[in-house]
Amino acid sequence: MKTATRLTASLALGMALAATTAAVPGDATAAPHPHQIRAARTVTLTNADDGRTVTVARGDTVTVKLTGIRDQGVRWAWSEPAATAPGVLRRSRGGTSPDGGASAVFRAVGRGTSDVTAYRRCVAAPGHVCPRIVIRWRAAVVVK
Question: What is the pTM of this model?
Answer without folding.
Answer: 0.70
